[in-house]
Amino acid sequence: MKKNSAINVSAETLAAFLDGNATVQESKLIFDMLPEDAKLRELLHISQSVDTELGRFPLINASLPLKTMVATSKESNSCSFECEKYVLDRCGIEYDAHELLKDSIRHGWLKETGTCIYNIGRHCENMGLQVKRHYMGTISDITQAINEGKHVIVALDGGELLNNTAEEKTEDIRVGEKADHAVVVTSFCSTHQTITVYDPNSPSHTNTYSIKQFTDAWNDSKNYIITITPNNMKTYNPNPIDLSDVALPEDLKELREAIAENAHDIWAIDRQEEGWTYGPVRDENKKETPCMVPYSELPEKEKEYDRKMAMRTIKLMMKLGYDLIKREETDLYKDLLARIRNAQETYYCSQCWHKGIKTPVAKHQVFCHVCGCELKLEDLYKG
């Protein structure tokens, strides 16, 4: 293996690895390079140092893709929309496709780049169907839902579903990177271990895949599944996001207390508007409750409830890919803020520019992925 081979790894791959979103193959490549690649080791060391200074604590598992956009292809961005129409048809619900499309655009569910996976199922919700979404689904979840008469939409990597090996990869289809497509799972065959889907992007609209091929593509959305229940069979089984792998710093105690106290105040205002007042014992008829007191006077049991809610909220944000950065007047914060504000501008490596090479670089990059030089914001060329 060549030394300093980090220049052969794309900026996107390194960024995905640093954010915990790299594929198994990408992670293995980087780990294999570390022993012989000084620049790569330095890059990872700097990144970890910056993360520590910003108060970021890594997750054991990668963050969940909340804002991933699904789109049928470069020419069409409506695979989610077509999947919902398919479900509405199967539920016997009449609709005006043109009005549904207008609703998608008006509410911001359907954008030029596709539909955010968390908005898949909004039309079915508006039509009165029960919609349940969750990550880390399993094949058993799919088969159980289908056996119960529910409809199942999943987000997956459309390219990987069609091209399960590197040899079959084409320039137009990027395999094994992220979920960019939605399909309806219509049946499961335990005998042949296959899954059949309705695919808006397929000429036949119906395709059958092996469980392995389907799962490989589905893994890229962290096994995101949307189940839609007809009106006559509504059930509810809570399935919150697992936050057990999220590690938070100990110095968030003040933030936790601030969120907990504010949540209690919001609760109290809402109850007061409903006519509730203080009473030594909770009385539904009199609308009295002993919790109508300042947060500081709440029993520890009630405070702990609010604290758990606050911590779970913070953990959920981190699990969904967000970071908490405390605003402070430090050079690091000022540099980060400048990079965020200029995120829409195109920057080029100055060293490459002097050599006649226009190398676009991301604002968060530490080193140029072509020439390997250190990137400083003040030295970059704006496009």
Gist of the model:
The protein is an alpha+beta fold and 383 residues long.
Radius of gyration: 25 Å
Biggest β-sheet, characterized?
6 strands, antiparallel
How much of the sequence lies in strands comes to 5-15%
**How many distinct domains?**
3
Looking across the biggest beta sheet, what order are the strands in? 4-9-5-6-7-8
CATH topology of the largest domain: Cathepsin B, Chain A
Structure description:
With 383 residues, this protein is an alpha+beta fold. The chain has helices at residues 11-19, 24-33, 38-53, 79-90, 97-107, 122-126, 139-147, 158-162, 211-218, 253-273, 300-319, 331-341, 350-354, and strands at 69-70, 110-111, 114-116, 130-134, 151-156, 181-189, 194-198, 206-210, 225-229, 277-278, 288-289, 347-348, 360-361, 381-382. It is built from 13 helices and 14 strands. It has a 6-stranded antiparallel sheet with strand order 4-9-5-6-7-8. The protein has a 3-stranded antiparallel sheet with strand order 1-3-2. α10 (253-273) crosses α11. The longest helix has 21 residues, at 253-273. It is globular, with a radius of gyration of 25 Å. Residues 1-7, 52-61 and 165-176 have low confidence and may be disordered.
Helix and strand topology:
Blueprint: H1 11-19, H2 24-33, H3 38-53, E1 69-70, H4 79-90, H5 97-107, E2 110-111, E3 114-116, H6 122-126, E4 130-134, H7 139-147, E5 151-156, H8 158-162, E6 181-189, E7 194-198, E8 206-210, H9 211-218, E9 225-229, H10 253-273, E10 277-278, E11 288-289, H11 300-319, H12 331-341, E12 347-348, H13 350-354, E13 360-361, E14 381-382
Parallel strand pairs: 10-11
Antiparallel strand pairs: 1-3, 2-3, 4-9, 5-6, 5-9, 6-7, 7-8, 12-13, 12-14
Helix pairs in contact: 10-11
